[in-house]
Design goal:
By secondary structure, the protein is mainly alpha-helical. Helices cover 98% and strands 0% of the residues.
Length: 109
């Protein structure tokens, strides 16, 4: 019986570390799987953020175009108003210059 127990203890000492090492390898594989899952979740999150940024950029571009169009229309209207005012002022100046020239011609006679 003593030989039997010696054989059992010997087998445990011989194969025990190998069995424990298998658990370590399995644990490392599990950590690798967890890291892979985390990386996939991060990639999905990054993709969603990129899509949201792209959509925001499209919205900004669209709104910027609308504002630019409104600004162009307002500037065009303002330019027309300025041109009208300038023409009226030029006409008044021309009339005043003609009147002054007539008065000067009359005074010289």
């Amino acid at each position: 019986m003593k030989k039997f127990w010696i054989a059992v203890v010997g087998a445990v000492l011989a194969f025990g570390p190998a069995m424990l090492a298998q658990d370590v390898v399995t644990g490392v594989k599990d950590v690798g799987k967890d890291i892979d899952k985390g990386a996939k979740k991060t990639a999905k999150g990054t993709e969603k953020a990129a899509d949201a940024t792209k959509d925001a950029a499209k919205g900004t571009a669209k709104d910027t175009t609308k504002v630019a169009d409104k600004t162009a229309g307002t500037t065009k209207d303002a330019a027309k108003g300025t041109a009208k005012g300038t023409k009226k002022a030029a006409d008044k100046t021309a009339d005043a210059t003609k009147d002054a020239a007539k008065k000067t011609a009359d005074a010289v006679k």
